[in-house]
Each structure stands twice: as C-alpha cells, then as structure tokens.
Amino acid sequence: MDREKTQTGLDTFVVLVAVLISLATILLSQGYRDVATNPAEDAGQVARLTLAIAGQPTQRTNQVHLSGRDSEALQLAGWLDEVRGRLAEAVPDARLSLFSDHPNFAQMSEETDEFRLRALKAIRSGEVASVGESIIIDGVPSIRLAVPLRAFSECDGCMDQGVVSFSHGDIIGLREVQVPIGDEDRTARNQLMYSGLLLGVTLFCVVLIIYPVLRRRDVEKRELNKRARSLEMAAFTDSLTGLNNRRFFEKSLTGYLEEFNRSGNSLGLLVIDIDHFKKVNDTFGHDAGDMVLQKIAGRLQQVSREYDVLARVGGEEFAIIAPYSTEDDIEQIADRYRRSVEEMSISIGSAIIRPTISVGVATNADGQRFVHDLLKTADARLYEAKHGGRNRIAA
After folding, report:
1. What are the structural domains of the chain?
2. pLDDT single digits (tens) 361-385
3. Sheet arrangement for strand 357-363
4. CB of 243 within 8 A of CB of 310?
5. Active-site residue among 89, 316, 317, 384?
6. Fewer CB near the last or first residue (10 Å), C or N of the chain?
7. What are the pLDDT digits (tens) for 227-243?
C-alpha cells in the first residue's frame, strides 16, 4: 500500500513537473521570439519600404509650367502631396518629408536640424547611400531614415537669381521618413522576465533541461537561415561577377514593367554588350576574359544609380533596369555607362586592354505591355549599335 502511494506520489510529481516544464517552455519560448523580433529593426524595415514605395520625385507632365525657381518647388510639393496620399493607407504610421538646403525649396523644406545636416553631408560625400537614427518624437521612440533627394530638371535661372545652380540628378536635399517603434519591446522583455522568474521559483532543474534544448534549436535555426540565405543568393547571383543573374533580372523586369505601366511612370531598359570580347578570349585566354568581365561589371556597378537594377544576362552581355527614366533621360544614362567603360584600362600581363561597350536602349513609352517586346526592342537597337561601329548607343 505504501509502495503504491509512493508510486502515485511520484507519478503526480512527474505530471506536475511535466506541466511546469510545458508552461515554462511555452512562456519562455514566446518571450524569446518576441525579443528576438526587434521592434526597432521592424520600424527600420517599414521606413525603407516607405521610401521605396515613394521613390524619387519625377517631373509631373501635367504640372503648370512656371519660372525655373517656382516650377521645381511646385512640382516637388505636388509630388509630396501625391505620395503622402498613397502612403496614408499603405503605411499610416510613417511620416514622409523633404529637406533641402537650397533656397529655391525653402517653403517646402522641413526645418534644419543636426541629423539632417549630418545626413546630407554624408550622402553628398558618397560615404553612404542612407542615414538613419533612433530618436524620441513627442515622447514616442521612432526611427528616422534619410536618402538622397535628386533634382529632376535643371535650374536654368539659378545663376541669374544668385543661388547655387543644379542639374538633373544632382542631390538637392533629402527624402526623410519617420516611423514609430512602439512599446512592444518593453512588453516582450517583461514577459521574458516573468517566464524566467517562474522557472527559478518552481524548479531550477527545469532550466537545465530547457536551456540546452533552446540553445540547440537556436543554433539549428541560425544554421538553417544561413543556408537558406546562401541558397537564395546563389539562385539569383552571377557567380563570376557577383551581379544579379538573368533569372533575377527577368523576374525583376516583369514586376517593374507591370507596376510602371499600371502607374503611368516611365521605365528604361539598357542592354549592353562588350565589344570584341571574343578576341580577348582568343588572344589571352578565358581566365583573362573572366577578369575583364569582373572589371567591367565592377565599373558598371560603381556608376549605377541606387535604384538601377544591374545584371549579367549572358556571356559578355549585361542589362540594366532604369526606373523613372524618360526617353530623354535614358540616352544620357546609357552614355554615362558607355563613357565609364571607355575610360578603363585593364592590364593583362604586359598588354593593356581598353574595352568599350555598345548599348541598346528601350523604354515603355511606346506602350510595350510585355517583357518580351521591351527586350526585343532593346536587342534590336543593340544590334544597330554593334553594326554601326561599336562603342556607341542606339536609342
């Protein structure tokens, strides 16, 4: 009888321990997940998404044409109102604003502060493409993120007005977004603290059981995430140049073309071919050819805009998606890439190679609804450039 009571008591204890282990494990793992999901990082992702949705200001063709000073500021103000309207439903907590130190934009610019001055200086110097910081706004922890604001026209009357002149594409200020972080971090940490207290008060040995399990799962999760990221990167990256590959390019072009046709924005496409590349392989060997491809890929990447999508799509062929590029813009963009390669000199042993490229250009201005049609137009113009003497653009 006593033995049966002892066994019953032991069974009850085991059940109780099992319940405590289950409860503590659920609370601890839930708190761990919540803390691991950093609210500040989430707010930063929302800020980056907001700026990506907003995009760079583009010239509004239906805008009233005024003098150079008034026209640019008026169009920027109109663009800002339009984008804020689109963002009101998509990202209601985000606040988008513009800042410029140019006198032409004083009325539509936010006030000067230390963060904006520091961010503008760093971005203009080319040190970084964006600047962010955590701040308290009206008692609420928030994230501020700033990226370049580029001019979409030239200031023809700046010299007459006695102010600094600027050209299309020059950095004239910042696009800034502010996103609240919220108080989820404090709630998650409190939950984790109570979970730990429960473990310590009830049964210390439970910790000795749970911790190794959680630790092992965490390591396994990190390893799985690392492998998944590696596989994803390998699937969309060209192994030789490190650029996006053809699969990524075609997927991106499909998405861009659908979205830009739907919104009525201009989208440019450049198809680039290295001139006389076969001669490099035949003369110096494939290792030298690979090095030339890597050098040219690096140069193209250096001069690309932050929102251009650059990919290697064939042996010596590259392609670039140029968002918000009109027919007038795209030829200038293509020539910038062409000139940047023309200025290169690549040493192969005692020989010096001075590569050139030919560029075929197309935009969605002609109403192309399908990727195949846009690519076909760009390829046809590349053919014209190659047979027109090479080292040139056909648009």
Report:
1. 2-36+203-236 (no CATH), 39-180 (3.30.450), 246-394 (3.30.70.270)
2. 999 987 777 899 999 999 999 999 9
3. 309-312, 317-323, 267-274, 357-363, 393-394
4. yes
5. 316
6. N
7. 645 545 556 788 899 99
